[in-house]
Amino acid sequence: MKEKLATRVRQLKPSATLAINAKAKALKAKGIDIINLSAGEPDFDTPEHIKEAGIRAIRKGFTRYTPVAGIPELREAVAAQIKNDYGLTYTPEEVVISCGAKQALFNLAQALFEAGDEVFILAPYWVSYPPMIELTGAKPVIIPSSKENHFEPPLEEVEKALSPRTKGIILNSPSNPTGQIYSRDFLKGLAEICRKKSLFIISDDIYDKLRFDGRGPENILTVAPDLKEQTVMVNGVSKTYAMTGWRIGWAVGPKEIIAAVSRLQGQSTSNANSIAQVAALEALKGPQDCVAEMREVFKRRAELLYEKILKIPGLELPKPQGTFYAFVDFSAYYGKRTPAGNVVENSLGMCDYLLEEARVATVPGIAFGDDNCLRISFANADEEIEKGVLRISEALTKLG
Ligand SMILES: Cc1ncc(COP(=O)(O)O)c(C=O)c1O
To answer: Taking the model in full, what pTM does it have?
Structure first.
């Protein structure tokens, strides 16, 4: 049977982050005391006023198809938010609402890239970028970075990777998995390259309101607004408003690209869920205190996790500047033996060891293109974070 399936799905790997989260949840459901530090979503409930808007939409019977690209009010609200956050003007026709930022990214890749194209992905990267690019027939070109260069690949390396086939680049800052924010200088350097080579830029801004430095959202258009015609911004309500299950995201960019994304959507999923669109509208237009409150909690937990991890000999990490992830270098422990006699060789081995020995779920860095690190999520209660780190530290002392 398997060999009868289309090549594109035979080669497709399941999302490592979703798989680990599912494994941890399954162990927990069996009654095993797992501390899940692998989650890629806020641990908060969707704020009450947003839930109420969804309930009202159901009661009012707002339960039918909507326009493929989304209800006009939401497209307008997204354009207004972009104006407010980035100072850039877009019309509602330059906004498409999708089933999560993930679908917006998927559709964009389909709309922009094809066989023969090369697309730059800066590592460590969000797990879904490479498969999304591969599914278009294009080739992902991975540009590595490390904590030594603050997870910003040297611009010379980016230049060196250019070829006549380079067609685009995907950026994500604040970054999943590193929790780091690209500096303005780095973005300016990238902008220069993108301008010179007329590259399409996909700016995945899904964590743009979850930054801890008190500054507002920033992306490549903040330092190079002249690149508006070759850039598409992607965002959504999942992370900012604790609405991962509602599945609302969007893409904002040049009208022709947005129209192409809408055409694709019209032949695949049609519109995003009508009720969730109304809830997302309330999220954008209603009170925003919930965003600041959640951000403050994440900021505090980032400090907590950072301080605790730093105390463990051999572990290294840059202080998270945003998101709810820390990207921790465990490589000092690679090559050591577990009490059962197995050698921990890499990030997968370390993740497995921590799940079995410490009962703590984390995500192997290899899923993000960096085998030295594990991603540890702090979208979890303080006590769980403290207990989790303690367990990790105890498990590491058993390696010899
Ligand atoms: C970097 C990044 N982009 C996009 C997404 C997708 O978000 P959504 O829930 O809106 O599909 C995620 C979710 O994990 C993410 O981390």
So the answer is: 0.96
